[in-house]
Amino acid sequence: MNEQRLILEIEKMKRDIERLKVWERPFGLISWKSHLSKDYTFLDTNTWYDLTFDTKIANECNGAISYYDEGGAGEDKSIIVIANSTDLFYVGGCLHPEYTGLANATVLVASRILYSTDLGSTWVEARCLQSADMFNKNSEQIGIMHYIGSLRADGETWVKLQVMTNNTDMILSGYTGFDNPVSATIAIHSLGL
Which of these, 18, 33, 37, 94, has the minimum number of CB atoms within 10 Å of its CB? Predict the structure, then answer.
């Protein structure tokens, strides 16, 4: 009788271990958040520019994700590298456009997420991770634009945010009424799928 009870207990423990495996993944999730804190000025119109972040939120970053060559001589804060994953990732963030030109201008601001699975040789625009707004601007007018979507990593996957405008009087700038103003934010989180 004790041997059969022991076998039943072992089988129960095996089932419990299998159930716990479902919960292993959330504790190993990959998370990333960084900001561009300073103002961003567009050099030209109708040209896509890689946005280079200047503030990594370390206590919101976890797992195998980093800037390209983070801490090394070739560090590039415009490229976020997801290391060897096939997970589905949430990608989201915002831009804070501010028009500094003359009143009554119609101004386009656009953003898009690009990704590369071949170490940056080619870049693909991620579907549903684009944002574009056409503003009829008055002088010194501010706004906020969001982007949100997902992408599937395929091995080492590089991610970057690009921005564009049709008027160089448009800048990205954090609203100074906030305690922590930022011009742009990107957040990337694995969904465990």
Answer: 18
| 150 closest CA partner among 192, 190, 91 | 91
Cα 105 to Cα 37: distance, rounded to the nearest angstrom: 26
User: What percent of the residues of the chain are helix, what percent strand, and what percent coil, each to the nearest 5?
Assistant: 15, 50, 35
Distance CA 111, CA 133 (A): 9
Record the pTM. Answer: 0.83
CA of residue 172 relative to chain centroid, distance: 17
Name the residue ranges covered by the structural domains of the chain. 29-190
Q: Which CATH class is domain 29-190?
A: mainly beta
The Cα 190–Cα 26 span in angstroms is: 9
Q: Which residue has the higher pLDDT, 53 or 27?
A: 53
